Amino acid sequence: MQKTMLQSSGAVPPPVAVRDLRKVYREIAAVDGITFSLARGSITALLGGNGAGKTTTISMLMGLVVPTAGEARVFGADMARERHKVLHRMNFESPYVDVPMRLTVRQNLEVFARLYGVRDLKGRIAEMADEFRLAELLDRPYGKLSAGQKTRVSLAKALLNEPELLLLDEPTASLDPDTADWVRSKLELYCRGRAATVVLASHNMAEVERLADRVLMLEKGRLIADETPAELIKRFGRANLEEVFLAIARRGAEGPEDAERSS
Amino acid sequence: MTARAPDGLHAPLLGEQATLAASARRVYGLVLRYWYVIRSSWPRTAELVYWPLVQMLMWGFLQGYLAQTASFAAKAAGLFIGAVLLWDILVRSQLGFAVAFLEEIWSRNLGHLMMSPLRPSELIAALMAVSLIKLLVAMVPVAVLAYLFFGFNVLSLGFAFAALFANLIIMSWSLGLVSTGVVLRWGLGAESFAWLIVFVFLPLCCVYYPVSALPGWLQPVALALPPTYVFEGLRAIVLDGVFQGHLMVAALALNVVYFLAGCATFAYFLRSARINGTLVQMGE
């Protein structure tokens, strides 16, 4: 059954298909046997407290970390072994990974456009500069930009190759509310407009409620919830996703039955 | 897996990604990244020239002094300067390779590179090209000054110089591969390894003295290292006016082995970093 789901013969494989994925570091399971599959054009939030396994899961989806067991497939390619077949169809954005500080914005975009094999490189950079209000920043070193400006550059870099799969790790962390809202709108527009699939790791529950049509909740490396934000809120009998998150985070002390109320 | 039928005008196609031209474009893109860094800072460029220049001046003046007091040194005009220039080719090229890689960790950019379609072999090719560029930036002014100050013209060695140069460069890449592999696996904690690895070879490769000057038990070790043949070859040219081609062939044969071992070591440590998760923690 699983194999059929992941590699149905002749059918187009889903953008992301994860089966029994497990990663163990020195006897500690960072990710412990999770299985899920993402549909084209979906925006899925990966939630969980610190150490829940979000970063490890995303790293395995990018092929930067090799699973201990199970598999992570992107567009049908096993990311542990054949990631280079699909990397040009993906991209990634995180405020915790910078582009070179000494290079100007234009130089950075040019370098990454070449790495991703972007056609009409100059045209695309001009388009991105226009889209992300970077025209006046193009000839300034990336290291001299403010946090908000850096985020705009990182997003432009992430969308340079018009990715079909976008992995976002806290894309609005450390941004002021106005800039964060602008970034969310841009992401929403891109993803809905191009039917791109998005995996979003975030601690901002309002952001998740607004962007995500599905939530995968991780706890100690295990998948403990897989539903829409509305379903999750309803199941836990809370007012919003933030309260659900807190209830799950604290249930270790209270016991699971206390966290989940009947609505 | 199917090739993408992109909605947009700029999206890359799978078929295009797998070609040699696409590979060359990615290597060029990364070389461009390092070139922009070199170009952006004159202190960095000056730093490239600084140490080879100091070395050349020091050995040049010493040789001038010895030439007045010892007949051997008078006969061997250019021996020390030649040796120091060749030694710096090995050092600068290895550092050029390793430091370019370290730049990615210092700037927290390694994740972006590893996540991009750039293949490990292309990363290595780009680092090799950058080491050559940095070497030329460093050594051309120093070679010119060696001629102006001490009358030592490295180009007068002709084809021999090309053979000596090529053998040292290949060895520097092998060392660069091992040192960056170690950093990949153990992170910045192992950074000093990348800076220091080459200096182990200074006494062993007989830069300033013949192999016969080493104790008998150490000579086989020296003869297992390609640069030893390069420096022996230099001495044969300067002292006897003879180019000993067989020394260059021996160095090249050893270099092939070392380079393949370097590639295998890099691949092993990269794989190990992906298993241990150090690739995503790099720079922390």
How would you sum up this structure in a few lines?
The complex is a heterodimer of chains A (263) and B (284). Helix content of chain A is 38%, strand content 23%.
- Principal-axis shape of chain B equals globular
Could you tell me the strand content of chain B as a percent range? Answer: under 5%
CATH topology value of chain A: Rossmann fold
Unreliable runs of chain B: 1-7
Structure characterization notes:
- The complex is a heterodimer of chains A (263) and B (284).
- Chain A is 38% helix and 23% strand.
- Chain A has ten helices and ten strands.
- Chain A is globular.
- Chain A starts with a helix and ends with a helix.
- The N terminus of chain A is likely disordered.
- Chain B has 284 residues and is mostly helical.
- Chain B has one domain.
- Chain B contains 14 helices and no strands.
- In chain B, helix 5 runs antiparallel to helix 7, helix 5 runs parallel beside helix 8 and helix 5 runs antiparallel to helix 12.
- At the A-B interface, helix 2, strand 6, helix 3 and helix 4 of A face helix 1, helix 2, helix 6 and helix 13 of B.
Structural topology:
The complex is a heterodimer of chains A (263) and B (284).
Chain A: H1 2-6, E1 16-25, E2 28-38, E3 43-47, H2 54-62, E4 69-74, E5 77-78, E6 90-93, H3 105-115, H4 121-131, H5 147-159, E7 165-169, H6 177-194, E8 197-201, H7 205-211, E9 214-219, E10 222-227, H8 229-236, H9 241-254, H10 256-259
Parallel strand pairs in A: 3-8, 3-9, 6-7, 7-8
Antiparallel strand pairs in A: 1-2, 1-4, 4-5, 9-10
Chain B: H1 14-17, H2 20-40, H3 42-69, H4 71-75, H5 79-106, H6 110-115, H7 120-150, H8 159-186, H9 191-196, H10 201-204, H11 219-223, H12 226-240, H13 245-276, H14 278-281
